[in-house]
Write a structure and sequence with these properties.
With about 190 residues, the protein is of the alpha+beta class. It is built from 2 helices and 8 strands. It has 2 domains: about 70 residues; about 90 residues, Immunoglobulin-like (Sandwich), CATH 2.60.40. About 10% of the residues are buried.
Length: about 190
């Protein structure tokens, strides 16, 4: 909202000067001239801007309410952003599979389960269960995931398919002759 420009007498204000001596006035005369100019300006301001000023005050009050709501939102987001991740659950490996490094799973606050780690040297036939996820960490429908498998030398890499059923059984979907199965980057919504 634009303010109306002051078009009143500026000569009184301009002629005040910065010190009484510069204008050849006594301190009392200088004060009187200053007060006269200030009074004229305040009168003009009140006459021309009272409605605009009141509108600005209303707008500020409205924005203050919005700012309060933004603060509430920031507090909520801060609570989400600073939420601690639940601890990783270490699954019990089945059918001869062993941990190569940091196996585990957890569920984030959005209901996604995340797996991590690498396993090796278990039974590699199709349908072999590697491990079973706990209740609350199982998908609502059958899931198929592509991950990688490597040879014992770590240089040969192939795509490995794993499935997770609604009972939480993580199984080999495609037979592989390679030794290690990577579980990283397997995530799904519960």
């Amino acid at each position: 909202m634009a303010m109306t420009e002051y078009t009143g007498e500026t000569e009184i204000i301009t002629n005040i000067g910065t010190t009484p001596d510069e204008r050849g006035l006594t301190t009392e005369q200088f004060k009187a001239k200053f007060d006269e100019g200030l009074k004229a300006f305040v009168t003009w301001f009140n006459d021309t801007h009272k409605t605009e000023f009141d509108a600005h005050l209303t707008e500020i009050t409205t924005h203050t309410h919005k700012i309060t709501n933004i603060t509430d939102l920031e507090d909520t987001l801060d609570g989400k952003a600073n939420k601690a991740q639940e601890a990783w659950t270490t699954q019990t490996l089945l059918n001869g599979w062993k941990q190569a490094y940091q196996i585990g799973y957890f569920k984030d606050e959005f209901g996604f389960v995340h797996l991590r780690g690498e396993i090796y040297n278990g039974t590699k036939t199709v349908g072999t269960t590697l491990f079973t996820l706990s209740d609350g960490y199982r998908p609502g429908s059958f899931k198929v995931f592509a991950t990688s498998t490597t040879g014992s030398d770590g240089t040969t890499v192939q795509i490995q398919s794993l499935t997770i059923d609604t009972s939480g059984n993580v199984k080999i979907a495609v037979k592989s002759a390679l030794t290690y199965i990577v579980l990283e980057n397997i995530s799904f919504k519960v």
